[in-house]
Amino acid sequence: MYEERIKTLIAQMTINEKAGQLQQCGPSLVGAFEVSFEELLDMMFDGRISQEEFGRLMSTAEQDFHEEDLKAGLIGSYNGIDNAATANRLQKIAVEETRLGIPLLFGYDVIHGFRTITPIPLAESCAWDEELWEKTAEMAAKEATAAGIHMTFAPMVDVAKDARWGRISEGAGEDTYLNERYGAVKVAGFQGEDLTKKNAMIACVKHFAAYGAAEAGRDYNRVDMSLQKLYEEYLPPYEACIKAGARAIMAAFNDINGVPCTVNASLLTDILRKSWGFTGVTVSDANAVAECVNHGIVPDRRSAAKEALNAGMNIDMTSNVYSENLAELIECGEVEEDVLDQAVANVLRLKYELGLFDYPYRTDEKREERETLCKEYRGLAREAAAKSMVLLKNVGILPLKKGTRLGIVGELANAKGEMTGAWAIGADVEACISLVDACRIQNVPYTYGAGYEEMMVNKEEIKKIAAESDVLIAAIGEHKEESGEAASRADISLPEYQVTMLNYMLETGKPVVAVLFNGRPLAIPEAAEQIPAILEAWHPGTEAGNALLDILFGAVNPSGKLTTTFPYTTGQCPMYYAHINTGRPGGKSKFTSKYLDTPLEPVYPFGYGLSYTNYEYSDLRIIKKKDAARITVQVQNAGRIDGEEIVQCYVQDVSAKRVRPVKKLIAFKKREIKAGETVSVEFTVPFDKLGYFNDEMQYVVEPGEFKFYVGKNSEECLAESIVL
Ligand code: GLC
After folding, report:
1. Is the model's pTM score more than 0.90?
2. Residues with beta carbon inside 6 Å of ligand 1?
3. 593-607: per-residue pLDDT in tens?
C-alpha cells in the first residue's frame, strides 16, 4: 500500500540517511552517572541503583538525545523516551529540521502496563483469560501512546520450562499453546484494528527465538536443541504473534545451535520472511549486534554489521555498529545496497502504517495527563491481579470473615516498589498499593511488622503481632530484582530467614496464610506441607493490595491456575508437565527414571489452582468428525459459591515414530459456573493439530490412538481415546 511512496523516498536518501533509519538510540545520561541508558538499566537490574533512583535519574538528569545526529538524519528510532513533551520535541526536530523530514519511531518496554502496572505476564497467564489479556494490552497501549510511545517490545512469548531462569516472569510459562494464545491476543490488544489510530501501539514480539531454553536456566546462555523440538515447542508462539499481525519482532540474545539469533539468516529470513510471510521490522536486542563479537561468530564490529544486515536484522538497538560501518560496507561493495534498501523499506513501512508521515504528533501533554493512571485503568489492574492469583492450599481458613484482625509479617507486604515486578520501568511506584496500604485504605484491622531485619527473624515481634491478631499473613517470596533479566537463580527455595519466620508464626498457634510474592515458580515443599493456606500472588502490579484483600476476604473467588510447574527442589529443573514417558517411567522399582533424594512429582503441577468452591467433572465424550474431534465434558460447581473454572484439554499421541509428550495442552476454556450449576463444555480439536515433525522435518499426523485428557489441571483429568 505504501510501496511507491517508500521507493520514491529511498531514492532520495543518502547512504548515511539510510543507515540512520536503522539506528536506534537510547537516551544517554550525561548527568551524575556519565553512563548510557543501557548501563543505567544494568545498574538498576543488578541492584546498584533502585528502580526509584533509576526513574528519578531518567526524569531529572540531563539526558543526551544525540540531537546533532538526529538533525543530520542519522537516527530512525529511540528506545526509552517515556513522555509526550520529549517525544514531541524530538519528533519536531526529525520532521522539521532534517533534510527529508522522516518521522521518528519511539519504542519502549511496555511489558505489563506502562504507568498503571498489571500483574507480571507469568501471573496474568495464570488467568487463562484471553479477553482479560487483550483488555490489559489495550489499556497499556492507551496509556503508553499518550506518553508518545509507538511500539512496545512485547509480548514476550519465550516458552520457559526452567524455573531458574529469571525471565520466566515475563512470558506465559512453560506451555507452547498457552504462549501462542497469550501472544496472539496481546498483539491484538496492543495494535487494535487500525495502526493509524492514536491508541494503536506496534507489538514487537520477542525474543526470537527460544530464549527461554537457555542452558541451565542461566540467562543469555546457549540454546542447543533438535530442529523438531524448536519447531514443535518453541517457534509456534512467535508464529502465532506474526499471524496475529505483529509488525515487529526482536531477535534473542542467545545462539541457536551455534548461530546467534542476531545474525541467524535461517531464523530472520528463511523462517520469518519466506515461510511466515512477515513484512514488518526485525529489531536487535539491546547492544546485541555488537555482542556478536563476544559470541565469537564475527571478529569485529564491522563484520557484525555486515553479518547482521545480510542475515535480515533491520534495526540495530543502541550498539551503533550499523551507524559506524554500513556506509563504508556499501561503498566498498561488501554489502549490497539493495539489502540496505530492503531493511530501510521495512522501517519506513512501519512509519507509514502508523500514519506518522501525515500525523507525526499523535499525543500531547493534556492527553498524557488525562489518560495516565486513570480510575478505569486502576480498576482493570485490580481485576487482572485478582484473576492472576492462584490459591495453592486452603485448609478451611479462607475466605476470611469481615472484621478478622490480620497480623501481617514480612516486608514484602509493605513494599509498594516490589509489587511492580522486574520489567515495569515506567511504573509510578508511589501509585502502587501494598497489602498494608490496602488494609489502611479499606479499614481492615491489622498489625504489621517486617518480622525480620537483615535476614535475622524477630521472634518477639512475631509473637506480639500474633497476640493482637486472629489470622497471620506471611508475606514471603522474592524481591522483584530476583527475577526478570539477568536474574537467574541456582537455588529457587525460600531463603532460610523466611522459613524460620514461617515456623515462628506457626508456633504462635494462630492460623497462618502464606502470600507468595515472586516472579518464578519456587521450591516450597516445607510451606506446602506445614502452612494451612497458601496464595500465589506473584508481583501483582499497581493494585496489588486491593486485589489481595478481594481474594482473602472472598469478594473475588480465586480462579487462577499455574502455567508453570512448581518443583520440589531446584535439582529437578527444568521440570515440566509435557514430558516424555521414557522406557522406564518413574515408579516403585529401583530401575526407573527418578531421583534418589527427591520425589518425582512436582509440589504443584501445571494447570493447578484451587477455588473457594469445588468443581466436579463427568461424562467425557469424544465424537470423531470428518477432520476434527469434538470433545464434551460436564462440569458441576458442587459448592455454594459462584466461580470461574478453567477447563483444560490435553492430548497424547500414544505411539508415534518419535516419542511424544505424555500429554500436551491443546485447548482450554474458562467458564463462569454458578453454585450448584452444571455446564457442558465443548472443544473442537482439528486432527491437523495432532501432528509432529518426523526425522525429515516433515509435519505429519499419523494414524493411531490419540488419548484426550480433560480436567481441572494436568494431573486430575478424565480420559478417552480415539483412533485415527
Ligand atoms: C533488554 C531486553 C529486552 C528489552 C530490550 C530493550 O536487554 O532483553 O527484552 O526489550 O533490552 O529495552
Report:
1. yes
2. 79, 109, 153, 206, 285-286, 485
3. 999 999 999 999 999
